Amino acid sequence: MGKKKYPKGSAKLVTAEEIAARLGVSAMTVSRALNGRPNVDKKTKERVLAAAKKYGYTPNHIARSLVLRRTHTIGVVVPEISHSFFPEVIRGIEDASYSAGYHLILTHSAEDDNREQDAISTLESKRVDGLLISTAQTVVDHSVYSEAIGLGVPIVFFDRVVRNIGASCVSIDDEDCCARITEHLIRHGYRSIAHLSGPSTVSIGKERLRGYQKALERNGMKFKPELVAQSGFHEKGGYLAMEKLLKLSPHDRPDAVVAVNDPSAFGAIKSIQEHRLRIPQDIAIVGMSDDVRAELLPSPLTTIRQPAYEIGKKAAETLILEIEGKLEPGKRIIISTELAVRKSCGCL
Amino acid sequence: MGKKKYPKGSAKLVTAEEIAARLGVSAMTVSRALNGRPNVDKKTKERVLAAAKKYGYTPNHIARSLVLRRTHTIGVVVPEISHSFFPEVIRGIEDASYSAGYHLILTHSAEDDNREQDAISTLESKRVDGLLISTAQTVVDHSVYSEAIGLGVPIVFFDRVVRNIGASCVSIDDEDCCARITEHLIRHGYRSIAHLSGPSTVSIGKERLRGYQKALERNGMKFKPELVAQSGFHEKGGYLAMEKLLKLSPHDRPDAVVAVNDPSAFGAIKSIQEHRLRIPQDIAIVGMSDDVRAELLPSPLTTIRQPAYEIGKKAAETLILEIEGKLEPGKRIIISTELAVRKSCGCL
DNA sequence: TTGTACGCGTTATCAA
DNA sequence: TTGATAACGCGTACAA
């Protein structure tokens, strides 16, 4: 009969105290030996290490975290897990965290702000050392973030960022990217360029739209609101937005389209094909993010190569530096991108 | 000046005790009110809830876990994060866990057994309530798993499983799937069918090879070892394996190929194209797992649709039931699949 | 209904 | 070099 009751199914593991008792030393000595502290006799250290191995000792990070007020854990909140972009970001986060000895609690908001709030507060309860967040589409109230920061939990935003609330942000220069790819189309000679825009609630949506506008302005072209169709980030939205644009009179119809991202472009392409229009002869189209599928299309998609892994890695590295007090928060970090020129814009 | 010292950057959060002091009640009353226990006066409960909100109280799950010996956290170990399959599995795991009130610590072994062991032991130290594992390619020693199970930490394997060590396994019926798709080729009339095999160290590799063999046997065809080329799970391996097969004399060269998975098939296709052979006229090819790219190829790839989300969801549900003592471990759970017939096998 | 004492496993601190 | 004590924040068990 054991002396204690454990909840059903909970593991019964050896404690440092028990090792100490068996060795006739104190728990502190065991702790010191296990943590490689200098002030412990070589022989006792060896005895402790041997006993720890023999009895299958597993340090209890829960107890350790309680007293140290450190979990060596980072909370990650992404709006979606499938689709090639975020998994690759997560891989970057994981690599950087692993190197620095941090673990990841992964949560996913499913683009829902309630679920995101829920995730953040549970993550706070679990006392993560910091938060890595890419905001959900429906988020409008930023007080949750500010409160966390106020409480002393550092946040680094990535990809879909929130500026000017004291958190660092890691992303590409969305405005500039969209301006560049729009200008690429302008140089091709397209005269009527449309934009399938992302949700205006997230940084990416707003900034890419602004980039599109700026490119037009800089090149003396008129911005026409009717050439901007709300698409969102997914195929379906891109399809619907394109359907809308193709309903314009032949005279007003665009001869080129800048989609907010690749999935949106895929949807638009489907619509274009259904209308029996050719890409790029009848309508040129470009995307952003370089989805794995982009170059496999019949008319491979010209797009902006967005280094997802780098974004994740940099975000995690930045957060860890802030957690360890080696970097002041509030930095704006831009990851550079490059244009992937393929066929859908009329090149090649 | 605060009375206590905290490590640099650690958050200073309100405790139940502090709330209690401000309200002139005991910490226990606060605890009871916050956890919705019945034995607390309605009015005091309201006061506590109001104060908790006012002072921004965040329950400390670390302390709670220490006393309850429960973290409500599941450790996940995947061999890779990119590529469409595992992210989708993770989404299934996340959904099921979220519904049941569990969080996920995500680790990735990068196909390295040392890193996998490392992940498992840290996860144990963090006292996760259970483990969800898909084994790394290089793993040969299963004692790490057995020890964890022996310690009382339930494990559920998914996709790449380890049978007969007392852990439940969730996967497709790899042998049957591979047999089915091989027989599909046989019915097409192909006479010399090759196999690009996965690593023999993981369940999937072994079982799919066996399925391929069985399909041949059942149909009175001779198994020829020279028609099996080691490919591994990635494009590069598939390419190299196919190169090898194409070096066979025209008489021995296969007229159809069963790849262990879609990425391997993609590599093989590249090799086939470089040899200026046509798919499926000169060589038919099929894969398994239904990668997003499969249907975008010039000759869309016939493959087995593998419900990644379902696998993840079922694995998490199973683990949670075991954690909560509602299910005995050691179950073998098969997720059903279907054939996605496209052009690369000669159909359509 | 409410409060007190104690324990969860570890580490910091100070004394030996 | 080592040990005793207290503390981290919470919940169980019991007493009031």
Which properties best describe this structure?
alpha/beta, 348 residues, 4-stranded parallel beta sheet, elongated, homodimer, disordered N terminus, DNA-binding
Count of helical regions of chain A: 12
State the distance separating the first and last CA atoms of chain A: 78 Å
**Biggest interface pair, counts:** A-B, 61 and 61 residues
Mean pLDDT of chain A: 94
Query: What is the SS-derived class of chain A?
Result: alpha/beta
The profile of the biggest β sheet of chain A is: 6 strands, parallel
Oligomer: homodimer
Total strand segments of chain A? 12
Structural features, described:
2 copies of one chain form a homodimer. By secondary structure, chain A is of the alpha/beta class. Helices cover 42% and strands 14% of the residues of chain A. Chain A is built from 12 helices and 12 strands. The first copy, chain A, has helices at residues 16-23, 27-34, 42-54, 61-68, 85-100, 113-125, 143-151, 174-188, 203-218, 235-246, 262-274, 308-323, and strands at 73-78, 103-108, 130-133, 155-158, 168-171, 193-197, 228-230, 256-259, 284-286, 303-305, 332-334, 338-340. In chain A, strands 2-1-3-4-5-11 form a 6-stranded parallel β-sheet, with helices on both faces. In chain A, strands 7-6-8-9 form a 4-stranded parallel β-sheet, with helices on both faces. In chain A, helix 11 links the parallel strand 8 and strand 9. In chain A, helix 1 packs across helix 2, helix 1 crosses helix 3 and helix 8 (174-188) runs parallel beside helix 9. Chain A is elongated. The model of chain A is unreliable at 1-6 (pLDDT under 50). The interface between A and B is large, with 61 and 61 residues. Strand 2 (103-108) of chain A pairs antiparallel with strand 2 (103-108) of chain B, so a sheet runs across the interface. The structure holds a DNA duplex (16 and 16 nucleotides).
